[in-house]
């Protein structure tokens, strides 16, 4: 059954300044909970205005969140978590790219900020739960344990970025939008009916702390430019780059290789070596992956024992693929039923049993169908 608390709770609603979190806070208040809104100030130097639909956590966003709280009729505060966000999310993001991996900062933010730093502070202040505008469901089982499930609307499901939550965190999480099978337009219409000015505000996209969307430029400012070689699978030099951190596994565009492939087909990034600052490119078929190992597993409940059959999701908006998986000495070993492409170390693999999220782990290595180098 879906987790619908029988008694009013003291709820801390994380309000980003967007429409989803505003409607979630309004629904929690309408359900009879004692709701307090909080906006997380995550940037040490917030811009006055976002650039179109990019970025978040700006002064404009905090003001939008405050106005929404006023309309809902709930208390509102701004909490400064900029130092914690920089250390746990931004610095981690830069370090992962420097090491040749492709991180997902949204997962890290959910794990370290919204359901660790924020939740811990909320519980210390006597709140029962943290409410967010994520599209996912917490299901209460008859034995009292909780499970994380996909949202009713698969098109908006965000359970992938919540796969880092453990059972304790799920026990204090509310996702009022998760049971809703509606379009985003209907959520906006609901916001308008409630008198929330954010009804027409564009969604934020890309990485919230890179407002202009230029990830390579952001990394270059922090890591410096370091010229290296772009080579093919045989090791032949095809071109140069200004930093291996500017590439991701499976990337096709922006390679700036003047020499065409012998077969005339596009080439993709196959490997990134931070040790010698080399980027290896090759044909799409060389991206096929048959398995992977993943570290730092986090389970949404009891850890699975022995090998099992699941589906896996490898990116926030990716498709599911059938797998077998087994935890061996703290490392998750995953084998795909059919080869998949574009799997990069640093990404998260999230396992599902039907709609239930089993857990998440960070990809450490992959097994290629054919050798990449």
Automatic annotation (TrEMBL):
<dbReference type="InterPro" id="IPR004506">
    <property type="entry name" value="MnmA-like"/>
</dbReference>
<dbReference type="InterPro" id="IPR014729">
    <property type="entry name" value="Rossmann-like_a/b/a_fold"/>
</dbReference>
<feature type="domain" description="tRNA-specific 2-thiouridylase MnmA-like C-terminal">
    <location>
        <begin position="290"/>
        <end position="363"/>
    </location>
</feature>
<dbReference type="Pfam" id="PF20258">
    <property type="entry name" value="tRNA_Me_trans_C"/>
</dbReference>
<dbReference type="InterPro" id="IPR046885">
    <property type="entry name" value="MnmA-like_C"/>
</dbReference>
<keyword id="KW-0808">Transferase</keyword>
<feature type="binding site">
    <location>
        <position position="133"/>
    </location>
    <ligand>
        <name>ATP</name>
    </ligand>
</feature>
<dbReference type="Pfam" id="PF20259">
    <property type="entry name" value="tRNA_Me_trans_M"/>
</dbReference>
<comment type="similarity">
    <text>Belongs to the MnmA/TRMU family.</text>
</comment>
<protein>
    <recommendedName>
        <fullName>tRNA-specific 2-thiouridylase MnmA</fullName>
        <ecNumber>2.8.1.13</ecNumber>
    </recommendedName>
</protein>
<keyword id="KW-0963">Cytoplasm</keyword>
<dbReference type="InterPro" id="IPR023382">
    <property type="entry name" value="MnmA-like_central_sf"/>
</dbReference>
<feature type="site" description="Interaction with tRNA">
    <location>
        <position position="134"/>
    </location>
</feature>
<feature type="site" description="Interaction with tRNA">
    <location>
        <position position="347"/>
    </location>
</feature>
<keyword id="KW-1015">Disulfide bond</keyword>
<keyword id="KW-0694">RNA-binding</keyword>
<comment type="function">
    <text>Catalyzes the 2-thiolation of uridine at the wobble position (U34) of tRNA, leading to the formation of s(2)U34.</text>
</comment>
<feature type="domain" description="tRNA-specific 2-thiouridylase MnmA-like central">
    <location>
        <begin position="217"/>
        <end position="282"/>
    </location>
</feature>
<feature type="active site" description="Cysteine persulfide intermediate">
    <location>
        <position position="208"/>
    </location>
</feature>
<keyword id="KW-0819">tRNA processing</keyword>
<dbReference type="GO" id="GO:0103016">
    <property type="term" value="F:tRNA-uridine 2-sulfurtransferase activity"/>
</dbReference>
<dbReference type="Pfam" id="PF03054">
    <property type="entry name" value="tRNA_Me_trans"/>
</dbReference>
<keyword id="KW-0820">tRNA-binding</keyword>
<keyword id="KW-0067">ATP-binding</keyword>
<feature type="binding site">
    <location>
        <begin position="14"/>
        <end position="21"/>
    </location>
    <ligand>
        <name>ATP</name>
    </ligand>
</feature>
<feature type="region of interest" description="Interaction with tRNA">
    <location>
        <begin position="156"/>
        <end position="158"/>
    </location>
</feature>
<feature type="binding site">
    <location>
        <position position="40"/>
    </location>
    <ligand>
        <name>ATP</name>
    </ligand>
</feature>
<keyword id="KW-0547">Nucleotide-binding</keyword>
<feature type="active site" description="Nucleophile">
    <location>
        <position position="109"/>
    </location>
</feature>
<dbReference type="InterPro" id="IPR046884">
    <property type="entry name" value="MnmA-like_central"/>
</dbReference>
């Amino acid at each position: 059954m879906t987790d619908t608390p029988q008694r009013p709770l003291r709820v801390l609603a994380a309000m980003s300044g967007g429409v989803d979190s505003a409607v979630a806070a309004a629904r929690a208040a309408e359900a009879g909970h004692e709701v307090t809104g909080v906006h997380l100030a995550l940037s040490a130097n917030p811009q006055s205005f976002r650039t179109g639909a990019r970025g978040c956590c700006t002064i404009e966003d905090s003001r939008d969140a405050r106005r929404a709280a006023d309309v809902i009729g709930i208390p509102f505060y701004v909490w400064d978590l900029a130092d914690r966000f920089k250390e746990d999310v931004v610095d981690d993001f830069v370090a992962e790219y420097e090491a040749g991996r492709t991180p997902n900062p949204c997962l890290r933010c959910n794990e370290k900020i919204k359901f660790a730093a924020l939740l811990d502070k909320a519980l210390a202040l006597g709140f029962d739960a943290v409410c967010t505008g994520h599209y996912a469901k917490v299901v209460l089982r008859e034995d009292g344990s909780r499970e994380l499930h996909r949202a009713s609307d698969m098109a908006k499901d965000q359970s992938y970025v919540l796969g880092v939550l453990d059972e304790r965190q799920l026990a204090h999480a509310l996702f009022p939008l998760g049971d809703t099978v509606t379009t985003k337009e209907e959520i906006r219409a609901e916001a308008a009916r409630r008198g929330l000015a954010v009804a027409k505000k564009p969604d934020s996209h890309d990485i919230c702390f890179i407002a202009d969307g230029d990830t390579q430029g952001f990394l270059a400012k922090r890591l410096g430019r370091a010229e290296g070689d772009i080579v093919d699978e045989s090791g032949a030099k095809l071109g140069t780059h200004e930093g291996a951190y500017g590439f991701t596994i499976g990337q096709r565009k922006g390679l700036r290789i003047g020499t065409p492939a012998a077969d005339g087909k596009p080439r993709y990034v196959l490997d990134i070596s931070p040790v010698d600052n080399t980027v290896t490119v090759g044909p799409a078929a060389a991206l096929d992956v048959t398995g992977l190992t993943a570290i730092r597993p986090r389970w949404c409940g009891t850890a699975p024992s022995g090998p099992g059959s699941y589906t896996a999701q490898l990116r926030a908006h990716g498709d599911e693929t059938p797998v077998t998986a087994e935890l061996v000495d703290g490392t998750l070993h995953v084998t795909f039923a059919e080869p998949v492409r574009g799997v990069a170390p640093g990404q998260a693999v999230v396992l599902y049993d039907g709609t239930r999220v089993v857990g998440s782990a960070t990809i450490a290595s992959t097994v290629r169908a054919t050798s990449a180098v």
